[in-house]
Specification:
Order of helices and strands of chain A: HHEHEHEEEHEEHEEEHEHHEHHHHH
Oligomer: heterodimer
Strand order of the largest sheet of chain A: 3-4-5-2-1-6-11-8-12-7
CATH superfamily of the domain at 92-195 in chain B: Leucine-rich Repeat Variant
Shape of chain B: extended
Order of helices and strands of chain B: HHHHHHHHHHHHHHHHHHHH
Strand content of chain B: under 5%
Number of strands of chain B: 0
CATH architecture of the domain at 92-195 in chain B: Alpha Horseshoe
Number of domains of chain A: 2
Largest sheet of chain B: none
Distance between the termini of chain B: 81 Å
Structural class of chain B: mainly alpha
């Protein structure tokens, strides 16, 4: 029996080692590819004077869709911020997703809303729309509020897309803050290449930043640990992950917090899926699938500098819930579109992006977690080569540090949004520190997602508490 | 296994060491850059004051060009002698700042002050440097140089910039176009539009900002461009004619809307006529409502949103009943512009059973009548 166990554990360790080498080789490739893409982006976009161009009558009109659920404390400030975006021709569709608090009442009184006869065609099926409101004040004439019964974020976004009047829809979180020229920057790929059907902007963490009138005016790091860890994580995800997949047209995620879509493409795909908590990734994967099935030329792109600022969780409990949800969303997407895996029909998406998300992003945490368990088991059984295990652990830490620090470096050689040397030093330090505890914690959260999904059958979002921008330092 | 692991460890340590060294280097660089940028700002203020002063000194009245050049050169005397005695690093730093000051000033200056600035730029060797950069193998260097030459309006660069209209990289071509327009004025539109190919919507947006400034002066060049072979150029010309809103554009646009072989171009011309809102196009648009091509019918309906036509009421009513939602909305808006008969039809549609028809009519009535408490 012990021989069998020894054999199994020994084989598993070999598998983990092979996996480890494969993952790190992939990360290295993505890092190099991202570096090239960022460099190209910086050179290509150095000549556009967005401030002037944003006023051009040739800039196509855009509808910004923002779902809101029980956000009475932040909704007015968020809406005002959306109404002040620097873009020539756009309107805002705010979807009240059956809030049980005073979200709609606050909007009604603050923006002088009246029930409107605005045409609403439910091209995508949603929960019942109770009413559509517009503002009686001329300065808010580009605001529309869709009041509907609760159906979740995806359902609310679909209602907003139904109500959108323009060719392009920008889906964002109501409590996120877009930078001044963000809309034009994220529109640029659509105007340069007519085959672009979706574009995602970068999401950055606003905790610790100075926010005035819905604008981030001073970029700083939070004085709390968790948001800083997340800043480093976001650098890794956006700058050294999505940028590389963008270059290969294999981008599978456009963050729900900030994405621009061709409305026709989204309608054609049937909108966001209501059956997943990872509706943003699922939609993008479905768009890939549809376009590749039809052999139509298309591109889904990532734009690294139109910034959407968001508030990151500051407590481990809420962060854990968020990561759990993201992982369940990833799992649902992979299960839904499993037939795309390793299929040459889906090009780089089927043969590289989907396998990457399956093995590295989805199963990676579980494999790593089981690796830790195997080491404990082997140690208990007296069959562990301790020096080798320690060395292996050190090597994995080295690689972890290298990729985190490299992601910070990518930010520093490109956009440099943190101007203080002190902040850069902190970020570099956190790129090292996160490998000692934080990374293992996120692995636990993500492993728990499997348990929640398969054993407990959890399919819901869970709650996400926000403090609102007022709480940020001024 | 041990050997492999040792290799992996060595690689990991090597890579981490490399990253840490780079990180520390970047940190030091950030601190140094911070200090350097303070120095640059100080220098910028100094040179901005100096150049503001020498730009404001009155030029000798009625002096011939040669005398003016001598005068301008004398104004640069102090700066040039200062640069001549500097170390190469210091000289590079000061020249960089001076260049930025001149480029920034160029955005606001015109007339004799601008000529003076152009002289300074050339005399300090910047034009020569930029012209050298135009030959660079790196496209972004060529594009930067083309942009800066345009900012300064350096007349001697016109020929080189014209040659750059054939550059292999679209960003370089776009910068060359913009700079050429700034240097050579509206006449440069002809070579630009003749050589342009595959203008993206973004490039059109960039170019439109320049063309729009010329207003009616651009008209003959845009009309001429309507007959060019590249479709993107034709579409751009149509867009600009309607954007500038010059009424003499109506006739050529009507001709294109009626006869051009490409339906996409025709559709664009039809919509441009709608944007111009000229009544001369009314009969043509009404006729196009019966065109066999759905895209042309839809464009004609959209164009009539601004013009309206009492004679089109029956056709618009039909479109209101049977078209796509967008077409129905356009038809409803066109009906609202088509006199009492159109309004009557719209009001009656607001009481119909068909939810889309009723919704469209109510929507447009709300647009016209505004807020209803």
């Amino acid at each position: 029996m012990s021989l069998v166990l020894e054999y199994i554990l020994g084989t598993y360790i070999y598998l983990v080692t092979a996996f480890f080498i494969g993952v790190n080789a992939t990360y290295t490739f993505l890092l190099i590819r991202s570096y090239r893409e960022i460099l190209h982006y910086m050179r290509h976009n150095a000549f556009s004077n967005y401030r002037i161009m944003v006023q051009s009558e040739l800039a196509p009109p855009v509808t910004v869709v923002a779902p809101a659920f029980n956000e009475q404390t932040t909704i007015v400030e968020s809406t005002r911020s959306l109404l002040k975006l620097n873009y020539g021709n756009y309107d805002v569709v705010l979807v009240n997703d059956g809030s049980s608090d005073g979200t709609l009442d606050r909007l009604r009184s603050e923006f002088d809303l009246f029930p409107s006869n605005q045409l609403y065609i439910p091209t995508i099926e949603t929960e019942r729309v109770r009413g559509i409101y517009r503002s009686a004040r001329p300065e808010y004439r580009n605001l529309m509020v869709v009041d509907k019964e609760n159906g979740g974020k995806a359902d609310a976004l679909n209602a907003g897309i139904n109500a959108a009047r323009h060719e392009y829809v920008c889906c964002i979180d109501a409590d996120s803050l877009l930078e001044d020229e963000a809309l034009l920057r994220v529109m640029k790929p659509f105007l340069e290449d007519e085959t672009v059907i979706a574009a995602g902007g970068i999401v950055r963490i606003a905790n610790g930043c100075r926010v005035v009138n819905g604008r981030v005016i001073d970029v700083r790091l939070s004085n709390k640990l968790l948001p800083i860890f997340q800043v480093v994580e976001y650098f890794r995800a956006f700058l050294s992950g999505r940028m590389a997949w963008h270059g290969m047209n294999g981008l599978l995620i456009i963050s729900g917090a900030f994405g621009m879509f061709k409305k026709a493409a989204v309608l054609e795909a049937g909108g966001y899926s209501r059956n997943t908590v990872g509706e943003d990734m699922e939609l993008v994967t479905r768009l890939h699938r549809i376009k590749r099935d039809r052999k139509e030329p298309y591109r889904i792109v990532f734009v690294p500098d139109p910034v959407c600022w968001t508030e990151a969780p500051e407590s481990a409990r809420i962060l854990g819930r968020q990561r759990n949800r993201w992982h369940r969303g990833l799992l649902e997407t992979i299960l839904t579109h499993g037939s795309m895996l390793f299929s040459r029909r889906y090009g780089v998406v089927g043969s590289a992006a989907m396998p990457y998300f399956l093995f590295v992003e989805l199963l990676g945490p579980a494999i790593e977690f089981l690796g830790y368990l195997a080491v404990v088991g082997m140690f208990a059984g007296g069959i562990l080569e301790v020096p080798m295990a320690v060395l292996f652990f050190i090597v994995s830490l080295f690689y972890g540090i290298m990729f985190s620090v490299a992601a910070v470096l990518l930010e520093e050689i490109s956009f440099q949004r943190y101007p203080r040397p002190r902040d850069l030093a902190i970020l570099l330090a956190f790129g090292v520190i996160e490998n000692f505890g934080y990374r293992q914690l996120t692995i636990l959260w993500r492993v728990k997602a499997f348990w929640d999904f398969f054993v407990r059958g959890v399919r819901t979002w869970g709650t996400m508490q926000r403090k609102g921008w007022d709480s940020n330092p001024r | 296994m041990r050997t492999e692991l040792v290799i992996v460890i060595a690689l990991a340590i090597g890579a981490t060491f490399f990253v840490v060294v780079v990180a520390v280097g970047l940190l030091i660089n950030k601190v140094v850059e911070g200090r350097r940028s303070k120095t640059k700002m100080r220098l910028y203020d100094f040179y901005a004051g100096l150049f503001a002063d020498i730009l404001l000194r009155p030029a000798p009245e009625g002096a011939p060009e040669e005398a003016l050049s001598t005068y301008y050169e004398s104004l640069l005397g102090q700066i040039k002698s200062g640069l001549a005695w500097s170390t190469p690093a210091r000289k590079r730093l000061h020249r960089g700042v001076i260049r930025n000051v001149l480029l920034d000033f160029s955005r606001d200056l015109t007339g004799e002050s601008m000529s003076r600035l152009q002289y300074f730029y050339a005399s300090l060797g910047f034009v020569r440097d930029e012209l050298d950069q135009l030959k660079s193998k790196k496209w972004w260097h060529r594009a930067h140089a083309a942009r800066d030459l345009g900012l300064l309006g350096a007349p001697s660069a016109a020929e080189a910039l014209t040659a750059l209209l054939d550059d292999e990289h679209p960003d370089v071509r776009t910068q060359a176009m913009q700079s050429l327009v700034k240097i050579a004025g509206v006449e440069s539109l002809r070579p630009i539009l003749q050589k342009a190919r595959g203008i993206s919507r973004w490039a059109a947006l960039e170019l439109s900002l320049i063309v729009k400034d010329f207003e009616e002066q651009a008209y003959p060049y845009l009309v001429e461009a309507l007959s060019y072979p590249d479709r993107s150029v034709v579409l751009f010309a149509i867009e600009m004619l309607s954007l500038i809103g010059f009424v003499t554009g109506v006739e050529p646009l009507m001709h294109m809307a009626d006869t051009y072989p490409d339906t996409q171009v025709r559709a664009k011309a039809i919509e441009a006529l709608g944007r111009l809102g000229d009544q001369r196009a009314e009969q043509l648009l009404v006729r196009l409502l019966k065109n066999p091509y759905p895209s042309l019918r839809a464009s004609a309906t959209r164009a009539l949103e601004r013009i309206g036509s009492p004679t089109a009421v029956p056709l618009l009513s039909e479109r209101l009943m049977t078209g796509s939602v967008h077409e129905r909305l356009s038809a409803a808006r066109a009906l609202a512009k088509s006199g009492e008969a159109g309004m009557e039809r719209l009001r009656s549609a607001a009481g119909e059973q068909d939810p889309i028809l009723r919704g469209v009519a109510l929507h447009v009535l709300e647009e016209i009548e505004g807020v209803r408490e």
